[in-house]
Write a structure and sequence with these properties.
The protein is 38% helix and 12% strand. The protein contains twelve helices and 13 strands. Helix 7 (269-278) crosses helix 9. The chain has 389 residues and is of the alpha/beta class. The chain folds into two domains: 11-23 and 314-379, Non-ribosomal Peptide Synthetase Peptidyl Carrier Protein, Chain A; 55-304, Alpha-Beta Barrel (TIM Barrel), CATH 3.20.20. The chain has helices at residues 77-86, 99-109, 135-147, 179-193, 213-222, 245-254, 269-278, 289-292, 296-304, 315-349, 356-363, 369-379; strands spanning 11-12, 15-16, 55-57, 60-62, 66-68, 92-93, 97-98, 126-131, 153-158, 198-203, 227-231, 260-263, 283-286.
């Protein structure tokens, strides 16, 4: 089953429903329900203005200034739809795409990367992130994204720490050792995108002995980027230790016009708001916590408006959210592949819940739809009285 070729599957407690599960309480606008056929069309809540100024990325207004981070293997169209249904995220982003691979796919197969699933018809604003170390490759793909896909923002990744991107491809955070080359790349992509804002995401440097964020930020601003996101760790840390928000604030102070978004260790709506209000950054980007709690954006947006945040969904509601997400994945990839892909998402949703360890152990081994639904029905956390933590 590809792209909705088969009839959609909606599940509740193992039974087929006529409509998908759509969140009703978490959206900043109060939430809505909807019924749709075929490929799902996300709803776009319109929250009232926040007490914090919106983030302007060129002509794109990000309100509230709370961004969903691009995360490889996770932030595909299905995940973004779940986030959008809750509301509260001012800008959503795709998984990062490899520019070189995108060019090869189009040249040799007439295809686009699967990570661009849904991008053409998806509500805006939307950012697409890409990586490479060749200015011409990035310019070519950036131009296609801007002119053909008409994305809101083209984002360049200079922060990925994984070995396949850094040591093997000399891209991502590897480029932070060469601020001038980063500036050259950004300038070429800005020229190619012809008015569509170009942004960049960096870390503090390659290692503690190579902290180049201040110089890199200045080169990125000089090259014409419309915004910079800074993750508060060096690449060598991966995700260990704590994010250095003082260093992020220092990057913000080092630039004169370019907005700066902070990222790292935002593990609650309260932390998001505190970082935004206390560090001087223009926006905050939420990453890993949003995989377990896609409603965190709506909660943070409410706090920015000095309103009580909507409560977390009940465990029963969270189970329905997982099944809704599963349905979206299966519509695109088919039941067999969708079941395998959904295992990691289901594990993320259970993070921090009572009984999560037992659930993860079972759901990570399922291979068939029936097994997935059975594990969701019998093992998804229901409360501390059912499982050991």
């Amino acid at each position: 089953m590809q792209n909705g070729d088969a009839s959609p599957l909606f599940f509740k407690a193992g039974r087929r429903l006529d409509t998908p599960f759509l969140w009703r309480r978490g959206a900043a606008s109060g939430g809505r329900r909807g019924v749709d056929s075929g490929d799902p069309k996300p709803m776009t809540p319109s929250p009232p203005p926040t007490t914090v100024a919106p983030l302007a990325i060129g002509p794109v207004l990000v309100d509230p200034p709370i961004l969903q981070a691009p995360m490889a293997g996770y932030t595909n169209y299905a995940y973004r739809q779940v986030v959008r249904e809750f509301g509260g995220a001012g800008l959503l982003a795709t998984e990062m795409i490899a520019a070189r691979s995108a060019i090869w796919l189009e040249t040799n197969r007439g295809e686009h990367p699967d990570r661009l699933w849904g991008v053409r018809d998806e509500p805006r604003p939307l950012a697409v992130q890409m990586w490479d170390n060749d200015p011409d490759n990035l310019a070519a793909v950036g131009r296609r994204l801007a002119q053909d896909f008409r994305v809101s923002v083209v984002d360049l990744n200079f922060g990925c720490p994984v070995r396949q991107v850094t040591e093997k491809a000399h891209s991502g955070s590897w480029l932070l050792r060469d601020p001038d080359r980063v500036g050259t790349i950004v300038r070429r992509v800005v020229e190619a995108c012809a008015g569509v804002p170009v942004t960049a995401k960096i870390r503090l440097g390659c290692s503690d002995s190579c902290r180049t964020a201040l110089e890199v930020a200045q080169r990125i601003e000089e090259a014409g980027a419309s915004c910079l996101t800074v993750h508060g760790r060096v690449a060598a840390q991966f995700f260990t230790g704590e994010a250095d928000w003082e260093a992020i604030a220092a990057v913000k102070r080092s630039v004169s016009r370019m907005p700066v978004v902070g990222n790292g260790d935002i593990d609650s709506p309260e932390t998001a708001v505190r970082r935004l209000r206390e560090t001087g950054v223009d926006g905050v980007m939420i990453a890993r916590e949003a995989l377990a709690r896609p409603w965190i954006f709506a909660q943070a947006a409410a706090l920015l408006r000095d309103e009580p945040p909507p409560p977390d969904p009940t465990l029963a509601e969270q189970r329905e959210i997982v099944l809704h997400h599963y349905d979206l994945v299966c519509r695109r990839f088919g039941v067999e592949q969708g079941t395998l892909l959904m295992r990691k998402f289901a594990c993320s949703y259970a993070q921090g819940l009572p009984g999560a360890r037992d659930f993860r152990g079972k759901v990570s081994r399922v291979t068939r739809r029936e097994e997935f639904l059975q594990v969701m029905d019998t093992c998804f956390p229901r409360g501390s009285d059912h499982f050991s933590a």
